[in-house]
Hints:
Blueprint: H1 3-15, E1 19-21, H2 35-39, E2 42-44, E3 50-54, E4 58-65, E5 71-76, H3 90-95, E6 98-103, E7 112-113, H4 124-138, E8 143-147, H5 150-161, E9 166-172, H6 188-192, H7 196-204, H8 206-217, H9 225-232, H10 240-251, H11 262-269, E10 278-283, E11 304-309, H12 315-318, H13 320-334
Parallel strand pairs: 5-6, 5-8, 8-9, 9-10, 10-11
Antiparallel strand pairs: 1-2, 3-4, 4-6, 4-7
Helix pairs in contact: 4-5, 7-8
Amino acid sequence: MDRHHHRHRQWLESRSCIKTETGPPHRGSPSDQPPHQQETLSVILRSESLKTARTDTLEIAFFQSGPEDGWPVILSHGFPYDIHAYVKVAPILTAAGARVIVPFLRGFGPTRFLSGQKMRSGQQAALGGDVIGLLDALGIEKAILAGFDWGGLASCVATALWPDRVAGLVSYAGYDVIDVERQRHVMWYQHLFQSEKGRECLRENRRELCRMLWSPWSPHWPFDEDTFERTAASFDNPDFVDVVIHSYRFNFGLERGDSVLEPLEQRLAEKPKIAVPAVTLDGTHDPLKPGGTAAHADMFINYHEHRAIECGHALPFEAPKAFADAVLALHNREQPSWCG
């Protein structure tokens, strides 16, 4: 076993099989469970529940639940979160027959770059390409893509560039493709990350800095420290700092991207419209998106529904049933023949 795989196994074992807490035993199929019981299911991630898949660039670690021949859905997390954001969303979807796949984004958890020489890019074309690369690696022709924060960005980018691979899109924060030329709204942490002092701060104090973001972004979500710490373990990825710093510098036009991805970035700069059925979501208490994103409706040229949810930024954590309902709305709308 080489050092890379040894470290990978150590990470998995340290996070310690999948355990599902369902309350009192329920007789009957999972789909028969009442909605309130589905909502309170909790998935605790351990080594046996995680799988890996190789793309051209990454070995992506991901959690999977539900039948192999189920209708596929990819749930993508954001920064500074990880796949634990979906612990209450995934069981609702698997109860409805979904094959749920929740990957660690590049720079998070046990996901690793295959080459030490590959640029640790965090730009949007890279994130969107990773989603399509994962579909390729798993032999999935089409899937519903759903995400928030970076995961919403990745899902929107993948949908905009490769619409034939996407059966439907659930996007937190509307049309979430970054216009690098016009990006002007800078939060304090984004400003910090433009400096080398900011890189040092993230490298040396990543838990403390990320913890500072959770509470104000979700002002009415009383999460406990165990919830944060389970996620914060993903920030120990050796590429976390480089990917995060590059993402925020590229987004503001202050650092070059991967030259291989330039043609994709040029296509994204043209603001391609979303041509697949979509449900967009806003959190009514999200300080990062004041006023919401209902005005993005013109960017969706297929079926589109916009929903405002009483929550903050971490919508899958805070309102898991609402997030799952958006995915199910797309699946139930057409009931396509899924290829996987």
